[in-house]
Fold each of these.
Amino acid sequence: MTVENSLVIDGISDGVEFDTIFLTNTAVANSAEARIAFTNGLKINRDLTYTEGMARKGGTGGIIEVGTTPTKIPGTPLSDRIELAVTNRDAVDIFTGAFAGLTVDNGFKLGPDTWKSYQLAESVDLYAVVAAGTANLHYEELS
C-alpha cells in the first residue's frame, strides 16, 4: 500500500502506552494539511501541552451596552488574550471592527442571535456600534 505524506504506525496492540509523542508538520511539509485519525479512539492519561490556538489560562466574559459611538469591547482586555468571541442577543444589528473609526458602514455586521470569534491579542482593541439606540453585546475572552 502506498500512502503519500502519511505516517502509519502498524502493529500497535490495545493497551500500548507512549510516554511522549511529538507531532510536527515537517513530515507533511509538501502537503496542504495534516490529519491525524485514530480509528479506535484516543485515550489520554496525562495533561496535554499547550498548542497555539488553545486556551492556556482561562477566560472571562460579560455584557457591554453598545451605542452609536464606537465602544471598546471589553473596556479592559484580559491579560495574554488569544481569542475574543462576541454574541449579539439583541434584536438589532451590531457592527464590530478592530479600529476606533468604526461605523455601521465599515463594520462587520453581527445580526440578532449571531456570534463571531476573533483571534486577537490583548494589544488589539475590538469596537462595536449600532445604527440607533443601544444594544447589549455579550463577550467572552480566552487567554
Amino acid sequence: MGRNRLRLLLIATTFVLVAGAGAFAVRHATNPGAADEAPPAATGVESPLDVTTVELAAAETPSVSTDTPAVSLLVELNGGVFRISGVVPDAATAARLVASARLTYGPTVAHSIDIDPNLTAPEWLDGAAGAISLLPMITEGTIYAAGDPVRLTGVAPNQQYLTAYEAAVARTLGVSNIETSISISELHSPVFNARRQDGVLVLSGVMPTDLIRDYILGGAIAVYGAENVVDETTTDEQLHTAYWMYTMPHVFELFEPFTDYELHIENGVTSGSLNEGANFESGSAVLDESTEGVLTVAISMLKRDPSLGLLVEGHTDNVGSRAFNQQLSEARAQAAVDYVLAGEIPGNRVTAVGFGEDRPVATNWTRDGRAANRRIILIFEPFGSDS
C-alpha cells in the first residue's frame, strides 16, 4: 500500500485518544480573575515535557490584551501542548473553538477565552476553528489574529513545510495579509513504523531524541506489556520533533483491541491498516460508539493536514439481495461521511462509495465471516489541488 494512503478497517474498540466532553473554561471581560484551565497529564505514560510549564520564548509570543476593543485570538503549540486564549463576542464561539482544539489536540489543551458581547465578529473568526488545527504542520509556533495582519511565529523544518502552512492559514482564515516570523530548522523528517502481529508490537524507525524514543516506547509498554513490545528504533539529532509523537501513547491505547495492525509515518504522512472485524449489525447502517471514536480520530487527522482527502468504502455480507446490499453499503459509507462532515470538514474533501457484497474479506458461510464482511474502510489520500 502506498505511504500516502491510510486504510483503516474499522472494528470494535474503545476510543481514548480525544479527551471526553466537559465544560470549557471561559471568562467574561468583566471578570478577568476567573481561573484558566491547564492541560491534564497525558494518559498512560509520563510526558517527556512538563505540560504545565512549557512556554515559547516571551519575545516570540504576542500578548493578548482584554482591554483591546476588538476580537483577538492567540493559539500556541509547543512541546506537544496546545494553548488558546483571546477575546470573542459570545460563548457559542468560545465553545466552538475549544471543541475544535480538543478534537485536534486531545488532552493536552489549556484555554482561557474572555467574552465581550460588545465586540463585532470579524470575518476571519468563522475560519478560526479550522486554523487552530493547522499548527502541527510545523514543529511549533503561534497564530495571533487581532486585526490586520495575522501574525505567525514559530519553527518549521523546511521551506516546503512553511509555504504549505502559510497558504493553509491564509485560506482557512480567508485573509491575504499575513506577517510571518518563522525560522527554518533545516532538520529532516522522522520515520516511524508500528507493526503488531499475533499480539506482538514491533517499533522501528528513527526518532529525534532518546527522550521522545523512550516516551513512545513507554507508551507502548504501558498498553501491551514489555514482553509484547520489540523496540528497533534509533535516534538522529538531525530530525525534527513532530506533534504526532506526543499522541502515540494514546494511539496505542486506541488500537489495543487489534492484534493485527500496521502504521507508517514518513514526511508527516500516515499510512497503514487495521485488520479485524466489523462495526455493523446485520442489515444496519447505524454507527456504534467505537466506530464514531475512530471516525473522530479521522476528523482530527483531516483538520491537522489540509492536504488529505478521505474516501469511505462501505461493504456488506451476502445476506439479502444484491440490490439491497448495494444500497446498504452506500448507506454505511454515507453514515460515516456524515459524521465526518459534522466535524466541520469541507464536503469536497470527503467521499462515500459502496461496494455491496462484492469485496468480502472472509467467507459468508459462517457467522464470524459475515461479521467480518460488514465493514467500512477509510482511505486517506492527497486532496487534489483543484478541489
Amino acid sequence: MPPETETRIHQPDQDRFRTIRSEDVQWKPFPAFPPEARLAVLVGDPAKSGPYVTRVKLPAGVKLMPHKHPEDRIYTVISGIFYIGLGETFDEKKLTAYEIGSVVVLPGGQPHFHWAKSGEYITQISAIGPLGMSYVDPANDPRGHAQVVSPASEKSAGKTHDAGTVVVAETGLGPYQLEARAGSASFLVDEPVSAGGQGSGPSPFDLLGAALGACTTLTVRLYATRKGWPLAKVGTVVSHQRASLKARDSFEARVSLEGPLDEEQRSRLLQIAERCPVHLTLDRGADVHTMLENMHVVLADAKPDAAHMDCMKESCADQPAMQDAAAR
C-alpha cells in the first residue's frame, strides 16, 4: 500500500472547504488604481506574507500606466481581452492582447502597463504577498492625486473642501477623461467614443440630466413617505435637447409611479416632481461666476452637504407660498 500522505500546514485562508461564486465576488476600489478600476480579494490577505488570489476589473478605455510589483504574479484572463505591455513608458505598439483562458506569468520587478483597449476585462492574479505596486512615474500614482497642493500655500495638503463643493480635474488617461469628487464620492466624466472620448463615464449633459432625474425621484419619494402613500417604486427618465449653443435647453422628465395610488395622489406627486430643487434651478436659471485660480486642483473630499435635502423638504412642504414655484 502506498504510504499515507501527511497533511501539510494550511496556508492562511485555506484551512476549510469553501466556494466563491461569481455573484459573491466583492469588488472594491483600490487606492493604487484609477478610481473606476476595482479589486476583489478572493483568497488570503494581499497585505500579509503568504499566497493570495485577487481579481482586477478594468472598465473599457481605462489605462494602468507603467508600474511594477515586487512579487511574481500569475494572471489568468477571466473575461474580456487582457492587454499588457512591457516597459517603463506607455507604448500602444508594445501591447499584446490575451483572450479568455490565457495565462500570463509576470516576474516581480518587471515594469509593465495595461489598457482595456477593446472593452472591460477581468483578470485573476495568484501571487505570494505582500502585494506591492509602484508607478514608474509618481505623477501617475492615484494615491498621490489627493495630495496635490497649491504652489501658493502649503496649507492645501490634506485639504477638505467646503460643503457643496464639487472638484473636477483631468486624469491624464484620456483626451477628455476627468475625475469628479463630490463629498467622499468620486466618479469619471468623459465624452462618448463617437465624440473622441473613451466613454468611461457620463458626459456633462448626461450628468445634468441625471441630476434632474435623481432630484425628481428623491423629492417624489420624500413626499410620498411623509404622506404615508403606497408608492412602491418611482423612477424618472430624462431627455435633453438643444438646437444650438445659444438656443434654450429643453428637458423632458417622464416620471413612473408604481403602487396602488389613486388619481388624486398621482396628480399631486406630479406637482411635487415639478417642484424638485433641480427642476426649479433649471427653470429659474442661475448666476455662474467663473474665475482663474493660481493653484493646482486638489482632489480632496468635501464636507457633507445637506443643502439639497433641505431644499427637497421645503419643496415637499404643503404651504401656500410653495404653490407658485416661479415666485421662489
